Request: fold
Amino acid sequence: MFFFSKIKALKSVIAQKVAAVKPAPPSKDLESKIETLESRAEALNDRAATIRENAQERADAVRDAYQCKADGLRDKGMDRLANLVERMGESKAAKIEHKAECKAAKLEAKADHLQGKADRLKEKLDDSDDNDDNGDDGDNGDNGDDGDEDAATYDKVYFVLDPDANDGGGSGTIYEWDQLSPEVLEEAGLEPDAEPTFANYVAVFEATSWFDIEDLQEVRFFAEDEFGDLREIEEMRIEAPEGGFADADALLAAYDEAIAAMGHEMNTESLFISMDLDEMMPAEDDEAEEDDTTFA
Reply:
């Protein structure tokens, strides 16, 4: 009996390993996802507007300060120096406005991207409703195109710019989810209780990384082991194609392909191991039934 319990335990461990690698089933609550995406888009647009307003106030304050200094110089008959001071003030103010405009425009572009996902989900929801009206009881839920469905989560993700740097340790940007501040999540357009899915890591990367996604060469994933130590899931490394990732959608698509391939490999491995274990198990139960029949 001990042998059979060990076999069952081993099969259970294999099943858990496969389940851990595969992402969770996609949620069918499309309306909730649409609301979340639109809320994030609205938050990004609001943040962009706030950035512009704050920048305008700072720029006006700089102009006023330099203008006041220039007026004082003119009162002293130093017109040429006053003109130079005015130009310096205008230059500083223009830089403040330009920097803010670039940041605001980037946030608005992300908001448009999220709103586009919400609009596509609305179309999918409408199609699903139409199919239901026509008597189609098939599963027309979200297929995960928006990248925000319930998914596998990671304790840390390393976005690698140069994989060969530091003796193979690489160089780039590392995010450990528990260490991210609410301000960082807000800048990425995420809620404070957002889950550490890869899609959310990508949102944080786009909002805060010091290098662009087009320059990204590799992504490494980390999770806690049984001792609570963070270790890399080496099977999950994603390498950039030749020419790099065009945008966040391309990176998320590569991630989905890696997850699908890994899940297939794990399921295949589990199947073969299970078959081997079944072959190892003696047919004692069948023999016992035959014995019972013989002596009945």
About this structure: Residues 1-28, 136-149, 268-275, 286-296 have pLDDT under 50 and may be disordered. The longest strand covers residues 156-162. Strands lie at 156-162, 171-176, 218-224, 230-232, 238-239.
